[in-house]
Amino acid sequence: MSTEDAVFQCYYGGNFVVENGIKVSYVGGGILSLESKPQAVLTNLMESLNESIWQQRIWYKLPYEEYSELKQLCNGDQNFQRMCLAAVWTKAVDIFLEKEENGDAGDGSHVDRVVGDGSHVDRAVGDGSIGDGAAGDGAVGDSSECDRVFIDMEARVEQNLAGFVDEEEHDNDESIPLNSDCEEGERRYVRCKKGSGDIRIEQVFDSIAEFKEAVIDYALKEGVNIKFTRWGSEKSEVRCSIGGNCKFRIYCAYDEKIGVYMVKTFIDEHACTKDGFCKVLKSRIIADMFLNDIRQDPTFKVKAMQKAIEERYSLIASSDQCQKARGKALKMIQDEYDEQFARIHDYKEQLLETNLGSTVEVETITIDGIVKFDKFYVCFDALRKTWLAYCRPIIGIDGCFLKNNMKGKLLAVVGRDANNQFYPVAWAVVETENIDSWLWFIRKLKSDLKLQDGDGFTLISDRQKGLLNAVDQELPKVEHRMCARHIYGNLRRVYPGKDLPKKLFWAVAKSFNDYEYNRAIDELKQFDQGVYDAVMMRNPRSCSRAFFGCKLSCEDVSNNFSESYNNAINKAREMPLVEMLETIRRQTMILIDMRLRKAIKHQGKFTLKVANTIKEETIYRKYCQVVPCGNGQFEVLENNHGFRVDMNAKTCACRRWNMTGIPCRHVLRIILNKKVNPEELVNSDWYLASKNLKIYSESISGVNGIGFWIRSGEPRIQPPPRPTGTKKKEKRKKGKNESPKKKKKGKGVQEPPEKRTKVSKEGRSIRCGRCSTEGHNTRSCPSVGVVNKRWSKKTPDGVSQSMSIGTNEGTSQRPSQPSQNSHFN
C-alpha cells in the first residue's frame, strides 16, 4: 500500500521532526506541510511519528471530504487501515493534531470540541472563535459551527500561503530588488530588466554602460528624440534633443553607500512633439539590431532596415546610418567566421566527439612560419554505415567551385537510395582539382567505403584528368562510367557553329543493347564524319547503357544526381568555410528527416521509382506483338523487330528488364491479358520500400556551437583574405547546350511572351560583303580598297545571278539602272 508523492497537512501541529525521508517545513500560522520525497509507504509514515505525537489526538480526512467528516485516528486501528487504502488513490490526506497545553494555540484562542466517542477536545482556532458540540455518530458537534470554524481557518491558511515565497525559485532572477545585507528593514532597490525599456527613480545599474543600454531601450520603446549631455565613468545624463522648454531629464550617478549606479533624477515630462528621429540611435545600435537578419541573409538591403525601424519603433533612420550599420554588422559576422576558421582543429574534435566513429581530416601547410589551411574531409559514421548496408554500390563524384573568399573546390560523393534519389555520403574541400587532391580524396573514400580495388563497385564522373588518373591508380577494377551530358557539352564547344543533333547523341548513350548502339552510331556517322570521329575519340562505350553491368539495377548514363546535390548546396557554397560545412551538415539532417517521414507514409512494397518506370513503359507496349514459344518463353515483336523474353529467368533481349530490374514494355505486353501485378515481376531488392525506410532511419548527430568546442592544442590557422569592395553576385555561365531561360514552374499568372517580328540571328555566322570573310561585316572590314565580292544568289527561276560589284578590270559590272527621269528623254 504505497502512495506516490503523498502530501500531509498537519493543522495545529507542534515543532517536531519526522524522519525516514519525510520533509517537515513551516508554512506559516502554525500549519505544517509534510511532503514525501520518495515513494514512501503510508504505514511507515505513521509509524515514524514518535510516541509523543500519538499521545495527542489525531484526526484525518480525505481532500474531497468536508471538515464535518473528520475521523479520529489511532495507530493501527480500523480508521488507520481505511486511510491507508484511500491514500493510494487520493494521493493526499489531511491530518489534524491537537495541542496538549490546554489547547493553547499561541494566540489566546480556544475551541472545545466533543468528537465521536464523546471525548473532550480543546482546539485552537486561531481567530478567537469558540465552538461546543456533541455527536454520537461520528460527526463533529454542530455542523454549521464546525464549518464556520474551518472555513475561517482555510482563509487564514490561504493568506499565509500567499505571503510565503520560496527564495530558491528566484536565485537567478536579476530583477530581484537589491538587498545588500539581507537584514530586516534594509532598503531595497529595483534593477532594470534588459530590453524592457522601463526606467524609474532609484533604479540601480552595475555600470554606466548598462545604464546607456537601458536608455536606448527606453528611447526605442517610447519613440522619443533624446541625447546624452553628460559623459563620464561615474555619471551620465540624458536630455531631450529637440530643445525648447522640455523638462525631460534622466541623471544616473555612482552611489558610494550601496556601491552601484543609481537613477537619482528622472523627469518624464515632454513639452515637445515627437519628430520621428532619435540621436541615441547610432549605427552601432542599428548593427546590433539587425545582426541576425544580416547573418541569415548577407544581401539584406539598407531600405529594408529603414522600413523595419520605422515599422517597429516609429523612428526614422538615414540611409547613411543603415549603410554604416550594415558594414559594421558584416565585419562582426566576418570576425565570428574568422574565429571559427582559426579553430577548425577544435571543430574537427567536436565533430568526432558528437559523431563517434566518423572520419574527419584537416590538413594544413606552413609557409614562412604561418599555418594555412589546405584540405578538409568529413565522412559521418551514420552516412557511411547506411550506404554500406542498404544503398547500391554506385557513387557519383563531382567537384564544384566555392563562392566565398577562399576560392577552393568542394568535392562530394553521392549515392543512390531505394527511390533512385541522391544520398550524400562524404565531402571535402581542396584548393584545386589536380591529381594530388583527387588522389588524396579517393584514398580517403577507398578506406571509408571499403572499395578495395573497386571490384563490384560503379563510379560515375566527368572526364576531369586528375580524377581519371586517380581512379586508374587507386580503383583499377571499378566500373567507371563517364557522364554523357559532359561529353555532349564538350562536343558542342568543339563544334560551336555546327547544329549538333542532340537526339542522335543521346540515342547512342541510352542504347540498352548492341543493336540499338550500332544503329545510333551509324546514324551519327551518316550525319557528319567529323562529329562521328570526335565522339569515337571520347570512347562512347563508357557512357552507353549497352556496355553497363546489370547487377546494380542502375541505368544512369549521366552524373545528374551529383549535379542535383551541388545545386541543393548552392547557397551554402557562398558562406565561409566552417559555416558552409555546418550548413551542409544541417541540410543533410533535414533531408534525412524529410525523406524518413515520406518513407513512413508510403504504402506499397516498392518505392515510387518502380511505379513511374512501369507507367512509362506501358505507353509503348501497344506497339508490341507476342508470339508464344512455350516453357515460359516468348518472342515479342516491336516495330517488326523481335526480342526473346524468358519469363522463368526474368530476362529480355532488350536488356531493360535485366539492367533496371523493372519489367520492360515487352514483358508488360505478355502479361497484358493475365491477372498479374507488374510489381510482382520486379527482380531487384534495391527498390524495396522497407529498404528505403532503413536508409533514412539513422541520421547525423547534432553538434555544439563554438562556445562548447574544446581547445585541441593545435596551432590557430590563418584566416583567408577578406573580400574587398562590394561583392557582386555572379550568375553561372550556361553552356551552349543549355536553355537560355529557365522555365517557370507553377500555375501563376504569367505575362505572354513578346511577339517576334524578325528571325533571330543567334547561331548564324557573319560574312563580309566586301572580302567574303566570316567574322565581320563591310563596315569593319580591314581590307580597305578591296573589290566588293558578293556570293551569288539564286533568282526565283532557279538561275544563279552574280551579285559581285567592282570597279577593277576583269570584274563584272552591275548593269546601270535607268534614271527616274529617263522617260522624259
What features would you describe in this structure?
The structure is a single chain. With 825 residues, the protein is of the alpha+beta class. The chain folds into six domains: 7-162, no CATH class; 190-280, no CATH class; 292-342; 343-483 and 559-603 and 692-724, no CATH class; 485-550, no CATH class; 608-687, no CATH class. It contains 23 helices and 27 strands. The strands form six sheets. Strands 15-16-19-18-17-20-21 form a seven-stranded mixed β-sheet, with helices on both faces. A six-stranded mixed β-sheet has the order 2-3-1-6-4-5. It has a six-stranded mixed β-sheet with strand order 9-10-14-13-12-11, with helices on one face. Helix 6 (283-289) crosses helix 9 (319-342) and helix 15 packs antiparallel against helix 16. The longest helix has 25 residues, at 577-601.
